[in-house]
Specification:
Oligomer: single chain
Largest sheet: 5 strands, antiparallel
Shape: globular
Order of helices and strands: EHHHEEEHHHHHEHHHEHHEEEH
Number of strands: 9
Mean pLDDT: 84
Helix content: 40-55%
């Protein structure tokens, strides 16, 4: 990992933690979410079973041992700094909603948060602007295309996207409230820090590398501005988006963020309370359908190698492993979380009927 100068940004008055997107985002009370349906299935078919700490630790240990020598995939290289990240980093952290922390492997090495940041930025925008505004300005539809597709923008004149692909994410960043660039950024970084439970900072080497090579995102921002979805300076929005993707996190940070989502917006480590949240399925780009089929868990990946998943009401889990598949998702991350979800019975779609009681 490039050990660039880290730039901390002072925290503004702490905003309320609201979390969301496909894991914990409220798209509107009228919308019946997949997670609500899943919750109903769980209530009627599968009673929740508290799991012993040894069982949870064993699930992590087994997955870590199974995949620690896997070398499939490659680092993202369209951002030069990411190509230099140690490909051997592999850490798994699970944090329960009551604050228990389970770890395996390298959980302290930092990578850039990249697209996992889209979850938190969207949560902030939902808090500030409301779900109806997000739906109208960006949309909530899967594109079926690559996360940085320009075709996806042109196909519907910038509409019918979602906030977890780059056109929608840059537009979401443009919707953040604030009188100046510095105010918007300081508030956003403080918000991320609340989710992690401690102060986070930008990895300058990643930001500088990404800002020098983000021509495609600049083009996307200009297109979204041309179609009227970005109202203000599109280049400011693109730069803020680039900076948010460059925030440094480790596997524990990501797992605490995921656990906060799983806990309805309450950080289980710090007790910091945000708005109540519900959820929908969300984002591993064009692999999202397969992921949901395999695990049933809302999740979000980033090309820095981070992957978070949420088991609502139970735990959040994160893996950091920079080796990615063609869609930009961590190979070891997907496999490890899939195995852990199965071992812990976390897939809400795998419902088992309750045996009828004798009359």
């Amino acid at each position: 990992m490039p050990q660039g100068q880290r730039t901390s940004v002072s925290r503004s008055a702490a905003g309320r933690d609201a979390a969301g997107v496909r894991v914990s985002v409220t798209w509107g009370r009228a919308r019946v979410t997949l997670l609500l349906l899943v919750a109903l299935l769980l209530i009627t078919a599968t009673p929740t079973r508290a799991q012993a700490p040894a069982e949870m630790q064993a699930a992590l240990r087994d997955a870590y041992e199974r995949y620690k020598d896997l070398r499939e995939g490659s680092n993202a290289d369209y951002i030069p700094a990411l190509a230099k990240v140690n490909p051997n980093i592999f850490g798994i952290v699970l944090v329960t909603v009551d604050g228990r922390v389970f770890t395996e492997g390298d959980v302290s090495s930092e990578v850039s948060i990249q697209s996992v940041s889209k979850v938190l930025t969207l949560a902030r925008v939902l808090q500030e602007r409301g779900a109806a505004r997000v739906d109208k300005t960006i949309g909530v539809d899967a594109t079926g295309l690559a996360f940085n597709s320009i075709v996806a923008v042109e196909r519907h004149a910038g509409a019918r996207l979602n906030p977890l692909v780059n056109p929608g994410a840059i537009t979401a960043t443009s919707m953040l409230a604030g009188a100046s660039y510095d105010q918007i950024w300081n508030d956003l970084l403080a918000y991320y820090s609340e989710f992690a439970g401690h102060a986070l900072a930008v990895i300058d080497a990643v930001y500088e590398s990404e800002a020098a090579n983000n021509q495609r995102n600049r083009a996307i921002a200009m297109l979204m501005h041309a179609y009227g979805h970005i109202k203000d300076d599109p280049m400011r929005a693109c730069d803020l988006y680039t900076r948010q993707c460059s925030v440094g996190v480790n596997a524990r940070d990501l797992a605490v963020m995921a656990a906060t989502l799983a806990n309805g917006g309450v950080n289980p480590i710090t007790g910091k309370v945000s708005e109540e949240m519900s959820g929908e399925t969300w984002g591993l780009y064009e692999s999202s359908g397969q992921w949901l089929y395999d695990t049933g868990l809302p999740a979000k990946s980033g090309v820095g190698g981070g992957l978070i998943a949420v088991c609502p009401g139970r735990f959040g889990i994160a893996v950091v492993s920079p080796l990615l598949d063609k869609a930009g998702n961590s190979v070891r991350g997907q496999r490890a979380i899939t195995d852990i979800a199965r071992a812990l019975g976390a897939n809400p779609y795998l419902c088992r009927p309750i045996e009828p009681k004798p009359r």
